[in-house]
Amino acid sequence: MLSRIVKEHQEKQSSLREEQEKKKRLAIAAVQACTNSMVDCLNEGVERAYENQRKLDKESKALQLHSAKYVKQTTQWLNLVEGFHKNLKSLGDLEQWAKTIERDMKTVMGTLEYAYHGTDEVHVVKDS
Fold it and tell me: Which helix (H) or strand (E) holds 121?
C-alpha cells in the first residue's frame, strides 16, 4: 500500500512536471513571439526614420550644390555689371575728352585761319 501511494505520488509529480514543462515551453514561445512583434514594430519606426534621414541628406546635398551654383552665377553677373559700369564710365570720360579736343581744335583752327588770312577778324566758334 505504501509503495502504491509512493508510486501514485511519483506519477502525479511526473505528470505535474510534464505539464509545467509544457506550460514553460508555451510561455517561452509566447514571450518570444511578443518580443519579436515588439522588435519588428520598433524596427519599422527606426527604418522609416533612417529612410527619412537619407532623403534629407540627399536633398541637403542637392541644395548645397544648387546654392553654390547660384552664388557662382551671381558673382559672374556682378562682375559683368561692374565691368559694364566701368566701360560706361569710360565712355563718359571719353565723351568729355572728345569735347575738350574738339574745342581745342576749333580754337587752333580759328587761330590758323586768322594767321592764313591775315585779317584782324578772329572767328571764334562757340561751344554748343
Answer: none
Rounded CA separation 43/41 (Å): 5
91 Cα distance to chain centroid: 41
DSSP letter at 118 equals T
Cα end-to-end span (Å), the chain: 149
- Alpha-carbon gap, residue 121 to 104, rounded angstroms: 19
Mean pLDDT over 22-51 rounds to 91
- In three-state form (DSSP H/G/I as H, E/B as E, the rest C), the secondary structure along 29-51 is HHHHHHHHHHHHHHHHHHHHHHH
- The span from the CA of 60 to the CA of 54, in Å, is 10
Cα 117 to chain centroid distance, Å, stands at: 79
Dihedral of alpha carbons 115, 116, 118, 123, sign: negative
List, for residues 67-80, the tens digit of each pLDDT value: 999 999 999 999 99
Answer whether 113's CB lies under 8 Å from 123's CB: yes
